[in-house]
Amino acid sequence: MISLRDAYRILRAAYVRFAKDDGVAMAGYIAFSSLLAIFPFLIFSAALVGLLVGPEQNEQAVNTLFRVAPEHIARTLEPVLHEVLVDRGQGVLTLSILVAIFLASNAVDAFRVAFDRAYDVAKPRGFLLRRLISLAFVFLGAAVAAIMAVSVVFTPLLFQLAERWLDIALPASMGALVFILGVTVFVLFLIALHRILPSHATKGRRIWPGIMVSLILWLFGAVAFSIYLSLVPTYAVTYGTLTGVMVLAMFFYLTGVAIIFGAEVNAVLKLTNATEQPT
Questions:
Q1: Is the pLDDT of residue 279 over 50?
Q2: Is the CB of residue 88 less than 8 Å from the CB of residue 46?
C-alpha cells in the first residue's frame, strides 16, 4: 500500500516531468489535431453505424452516441453531424470519410508524440509503421463508437425482453448505463494508448497507475468545466458564436492534459522501480 507521502512524491515528480516535456504545449497540439479531426471522424463513425443498423435507425443511433458526451460538447457536434448525414449528398459523405482517415490519424500521432516524450523514447518507430498504427486506431475508434451507439439503441429492447422473461421491473432511466459505458470505453482507450501507441510501451500492470490518474483527472476536469460553464454566463458572451468550438477545444485540451500526466506518472514509477532494483 502506497503512503500519502510517496503518492505526493510521485505526483510531484510527474508534474516536473510534465513541465519539462512541454506537456501543456503537447496537450494544445492534441486539442488542435482532435478539433480538426472530430467532425469528419464522427461522420465516418455515423456511416459505419448506418451499415450496421440500416438507414432507418441510423439517426436514432447517432443521437444515442451523443448521450455519452458531455452536454455542451453534444450541443456543438450534433447539429453539424445531422446536417451532413441528412441534408447532404453521398459525395460529401465519401469525402468526409477520406478526410476523417487522414485527420484522425494525425490526432492519434499527436498522442504518440506525447507518449514518446513521456517515456523518454530516443528512437521512435519508422514513419510507415507509425502511420499504420494510427490508421488502425482510427478504424478501431470508429468501430467502438458505432458499437456504443448500436448498443444504446438496442438496450431498451433487451430490457423489455428481460422484464418479460424474468418478470421483474428494471429501472427506466439509462443515464447510469450510459455513464458506465462511456467510462469503460475511455478506460479501454487509455489501455490501448499505453500498450500500443508508444514506440517502447510499458506493459502489464505497470500501466494501471497512470490510467487511474488520467481517469480521475478527466472526470474531475469534465465535471469542473461543466460547472464552470453553467455558473459563468460571460463565457458565451466572450466567444459569441465560437462558444461551441471553444468548449470543444477546451474539452480536448483537458483530456490531453489528463492522458499525458498519467503517462508521466507511469514514467516516474518506471524510473523509481529501476533505481530500487539491486545491481
A1: no
A2: no
